[in-house]
Amino acid sequence: MVFARSPTRFADLMLLAVTVCWGVSFAAIKTAMDHASPVLFVAVRFTAATLLLLAVWPWLMRGEAPQARRRSYRVLGDRATLRWGFLMGTLIAAGYTTQTIGLTTTSADNSAFLTALSVVLVPVLVFLVHGEKPARPVLAGLGLALLGLAMLTRPDLGRTVTGDLWTVGTAVAYAVYLERLSAALKRVPYLPLLFWTLAVCAGWNGLLAATIEERVWAWHPHLAVALAVTTLLSTLLALYLQNRFQGRTTATRAALIFSAEPVFAAAFSWAVLGERLTGGSLAGALLILGAVLLIELKDAAALNRMEVRP
Fold it and tell me: What is the residue-level pLDDT of the chain in tens, covering all 310 positions?
């Protein structure tokens, strides 16, 4: 089989599956917000995902040696795993919660393209943390992204939608998450890291739902479907595949694959919700997608030059 001889291609395919799972989630969450408050929804979603991960843990480790299976449980209490898991769970909580709050007032299309800004923000983060100055194509991409952001968040002649601003927060939180995840996967096993990521996110949202949110939960078929889709696909499966396979391909290839998320989200939003980007919003979305592709294709070209250098 082709993928058996090419682990990198198989990892890329798995990350593409992650992108599809995330694309489905925007429309699903949008329908759920008519029947549940956003923070409580995220808390229930991540609590269910945490419990399901514990349930399927022996199955996920079935191909490992008995010693490796025992070690996977022991590592759960390791100090480094707890530290990295707390950080990853906090960042995921910030990203998913702001995204869900944003979807109460903005469209699924807008949310998807604004979330894609996280890929554009990574070079800025690297510059601030490591002092690596962005190259000219990166600066050009940032300019396009800012212009697209202005057009996308002001679709009706100057009125900024509050949900768009919440979703910009999502992009910032997820940019930090992407940068830190690569470091975390080099230091701790992916499965214990995933467990604490899910558990910490559930804990943060449970605390916030109990203390500051006016909780709403009205069972409805749309809410049940949205909870199932987001728990199984865009939470448990997507984060499992990302944690397991992102370390097997290059960061550039992974980010380029993730940049397709708003395309899948727009397709599912059109099919499920009938949403269509028009006018200035469509132009802004295209500018953001163009900025993402400009930056990632620049990095891919640089990587190819490194790979062919003798």
Answer: 333 445 667 887 888 899 889 989 988 999 999 999 999 999 999 999 999 999 998 888 876 677 766 777 778 889 999 999 999 999 999 999 999 999 998 888 778 778 877 777 777 777 777 776 766 766 776 677 767 766 665 544 445 578 888 998 999 998 899 888 888 988 998 999 999 999 999 999 999 999 999 999 999 999 999 999 999 999 999 999 999 888 776 555 666 677 777 777 877 787 777 777 666 667 777 777 776 666 656 655 554 554 444 4
Cβ-contact 108, 33 below 8 angstroms: no
Q: Which pair of structure tokens corresponds to residue 275?
A: 């949403």
| 156 three-state secondary structure | strand
List residues bridging with 197 in a β-sheet.
none
**β-pair partners for 217:** 36
In our burial notation (b when 16+ CB lie closer than 10 A, e otherwise), range 130-143 reads eeeebeebbeebbe
Q: How far apart are CA 242 and CA 301, in angstroms?
A: 23
Q: Using CA atoms, how far apart are residues 37 and 16, in angstroms rounded to an integer?
A: 30
Tokens of 268: 């599912």
Residue 135 Cα distances to 128, 140, 297, 302, angstroms: 14, 9, 13, 11
